[in-house]
Amino acid sequence: MKHRLFSLILIALIVFTVSAPNIFAGNFLDSLSLGLENEIGHISYQQIIKQKEVVQLPKDQETRVNQIFSQLVKNSHRHKEIDYSLAVVKDDTVNAFALPAGYIFLHTGLLAYAQSDGELAGVLAHEIAHVDRRHSMKTISRTIGMSALLELILNRSSKKRKEDISKVGLVAINLAQLGYSREAEYEADSYGVKFMQAAGYSKDEILNFWRRLEGQSGGGDSHAILQLFSTHPPTSERIKRIEAM
Ligand SMILES: [Zn+2]
């Protein structure tokens, strides 16, 4: 009973702070939802590794990829609260994706396609930026509604909860693999460029990557290459925006 009352007071407080347009509101809700983000991230991660084959890279390549990755993570904003991890999965398509709570996946097809450390850094930085900007959690909260989200955060004793988290995990997987809104993709491009530059890479590297993909999109081999990177924002528009940064 006491717990219930506490929850109600907390909900009232959150509704009040969320509806009040101040900076505190966002931060308060973000810190409350971190535990839930970890749960959703973990459950969707488990799903992915059941479906996909995780690849063990040769030692020198593994060291190189991990170094690039940790350098980028270090230069992102949430590195103290998120335990980022990187897994390479066997898939010939040129793609990478990120789940909530920092689980990043890289396809072997992308690893083969990237021509330099900087290109790889650019793609990984884009994925880290999706986690950094909480794109998944924001979209989930819009999809299921704020009150359902708060219920998941606050009412941890609910019997249905595990089932609900699994469902939300599937939403997170779909988002990660099919792409976010146009705005979220542009934001991830823009933050990704900041993170890669802070880690010592030039934005020219990611521009080269995009230009090469764009150049090949009309070719015969385009299907495998552009299958997932061809999400909402047109590549030409993304290139233009990164050039203008
Ligand atoms: Zn993206």
The radius of gyration computed from the alpha-carbon positions, rounded to a whole number of angstroms, is 19 Å
Number of domains: 1
Strands in their spatial order, largest beta sheet: 1-3-2
Average pLDDT, to the nearest integer? 86
Overall geometry:
globular
State the helical fraction.
55-70%
Strand composition percent: 5-15%
Low-confidence stretches: 20-25, 219-228
Bound molecules: zinc ion
Number of DSSP strand runs? 3
Largest pleated sheet: 3 strands, mixed
Sketch the topology as an H/E string, one letter per element: HHHEEEHHHHHHHHH
With helices defined by DSSP (H or I, 4 residues minimum), what is the helix count? 12
Which properties best describe this structure?
single chain; globular; mainly alpha; 69% helix
Any overview of this molecule?
The radius of gyration is 19 Å and the shape is globular. It has helices spanning 2-19, 23-51, 59-74, 108-113, 117-132, 135-144, 146-154, 161-178, 182-198, 203-216, 222-226, 235-244, and strands at residues 85-89, 96-99, 103-107. The protein is mainly alpha-helical. Strands 1-3-2 form a 3-stranded mixed β-sheet. Helix content is 69%, strand content 6%. Strand 2 and strand 3 (103-107) form a beta hairpin. The protein has one domain. It starts with a helix and ends with a helix. It is built from 12 helices and 3 strands. The structure holds zinc ion (ZN). Residues 126, 130, 179, 185, 188 line the site of zinc ion. Zinc ion is lined by residues 126, 130, 179, 185, 188.
How are the elements arranged and paired?
Blueprint: H1 2-19, H2 23-51, H3 59-74, E1 85-89, E2 96-99, E3 103-107, H4 108-113, H5 117-132, H6 135-144, H7 146-154, H8 161-178, H9 182-198, H10 203-216, H11 222-226, H12 235-244
Parallel strand pairs: 1-3
Antiparallel strand pairs: 2-3
Helix pairs in contact: 1-2, 2-8, 3-5, 5-9, 5-10, 6-7, 6-8, 10-12
The structure holds zinc ion (ZN).
